[in-house]
Amino acid sequence: MIELKGVNVTYPGGTRALKSTNLRFEGGQFVVLLGASGAGKSTLLRCLNHLTPPTGGSITVDGIGTLQGRNRLLTHRRQTGMIFQQHQLIGRRSVLQNVLTGRLGYHSTLRSFWPLSDQDRSVALACIERVGLLEKSLVRVDSLSGGQQQRVGIARAMAQEPRLLLADEPVASLDPESSHRVLSLIRDVCAEKRIPAIVSLHQVELARTFADRIVGIAGGSVVFDDVAGNLSSRELDRLYRQASAPLPEAETQGHTRPFTPVVPQPLENQI
Amino acid sequence: MMQITYSELLRQRNRQIRRQSLQIGLVAAIILVCSYYVGLFDGTRLADGVPSMGSLIGEMIPPDFSDARDWVAPLMDTLAMSVAGTALAVLFSIPLALLAARNTTPHPVVYHVARAILNGLRSVPELIMGIIFVAAVGFGALPGVLALGLHSIGMVGKFFAESIEHVDEAPVEATQAAGATRLQVIVHGVLPQVLPQMADVSIYRWEYNFRASTVMGMVGAGGIGFELMGSLRLMQYQEVLAILLVILLMVTAVDGLSSLLRRRFK
């Protein structure tokens, strides 16, 4: 379906966000990219539709080939729905208008100056109905709750009638209950359409609940890649070791600080 | 980490206060020098002016509305000029602003050229443009519209460009991710976000253009300003006051309408 060969990303500042990576994603799987913040999950995910262009390596997509040239990239992006952490909707536009941006890729620039056809609108409305927000279709997005906004984001991605769904930390800013609902929704719609979903998460429990396959990432490299059931606590330890090392110090801040020089006044907490 | 003491904090705060007082003092000095330079402190000259002001105002009272019927057409001219001029400005400002905004410009060179055009249009006063257009197309409302429109592009385009630059990048990225072309991203990701600011600037500019178009008549570019100049030249000060009152009434009406419109566009 989509294959990465030697893909790596170095940011302009010189940070190596992703070291040379080989991966292959097949149809119908729910894949979770698991790792601590800053491990390189988002970079890897954003490489898959060139929102972050890889510095080196190649990405090959079935039916398109490598993602070279503008037309191939636009076709690939049209076929690839993406769900973002902060929804990335336009707050003052209606749910329907936001979902319709998912249909833009199917039309020429000139055609999209005029309102889209009833056929496109029906596709969009069907997606809105699927995420359970049909009665909110003409309501401004900024009047919805966070969980509802994320469902609009899912509807927008589905309106592209994608062959692949990417989701970058889709539940990072949601409460546990909404997180479950949103992830179930992503899993179910992908199962219905038999398309693969690649979802980055940092919560181990959610990954275990939803993933068919888990790709663990630490320090810009893939350190684990197997079915979800095989993720042992030892693997987990390895996955989060680098990130958790500095944590204890940060967490105990303000309680006991054995290394601060002893000063008579308790000024520290007042400043 | 070194512990910081009360006295050290207070010392730093005192230093801040001293620096701020110095800055305030400097600004005050600049204001005083400028005021002296333009003669604001010339008490005798100002005092001499009071009686002649008084007699002028005396000559204006009571306002003379006997020719009011003749002002209706010029007032309509003025209103039409302000609307058409603003529309002209907005029409040309949108493409120019897209070229002059760092995030939508196709090339840095284009960006600088577009910025230079906007600055150029802004720096030629509309009255000068009015004189030029009167020379080009003759007297009437047309040169007024062209002058107002062209001058307005400079400011409207600059404000449009600035609001485009401050757009939220997140939905723009989402539109890109859906496979939209550059122009589709602009039309469906950028413009919907800046629509309220654009409406705001346009309506404010319309209000400004209405006021400005009352002056355009002075150079023969149509509207109520033409009548005002006529009365001033004939020293019919009672009529001048009457016209000024009518303009005040219209400006107040336009102002009210514009704030009503702007509230609707939030």
Q: Write down the CATH topology of the largest domain in chain A.
A: Rossmann fold
Number of helices of chain B: 10
End-to-end CA span of chain B:
49 Å
Domains of chain B (count): 2
What gyration radius of chain B follows from the Cα positions, in whole Å? 25 Å
GO molecular function, one term (chain A): ATP binding
Keywords (chain A): ATP-binding, Cell inner membrane, Cell membrane, Membrane, Nucleotide-binding, Translocase, Transport
Membrane topology (chain A): Peripheral membrane protein
Domain ABC transporter (chain A): 2-244
List keywords for this structure.
heterodimer; A: Rossmann fold; six-stranded mixed β-sheet; four-stranded antiparallel β-sheet; 10 strands; disordered C terminus; B: about 270 residues; mainly alpha; MetI-like fold; about 0% strand
What does this structure look like?
Chain A is α/β, with parallel strands linked by helices. Chain A has two domains: 2-79 and 162-269, Rossmann fold; 94-160, no CATH class. Chain A has helices at residues 41-47, 70-78, 95-100, 118-130, 146-159, 176-193, 204-210, 233-244, 247-251, and strands at residues 2-10, 16-25, 30-34, 56-61, 65-66, 80-83, 164-168, 197-201, 213-218, 221-227. The longest helix of chain A has 18 residues, at 176-193. Mean pLDDT of chain A is 85; it is low at 244-271. Chain B is mainly alpha-helical. Chain B contains ten helices and no strands. In chain B, helix 3 runs parallel beside helix 6 (141-165), helix 3 packs antiparallel against helix 8 (182-216) and helix 4 crosses helix 6 (141-165). The interface between A and B is medium-sized, with 36 and 27 residues.
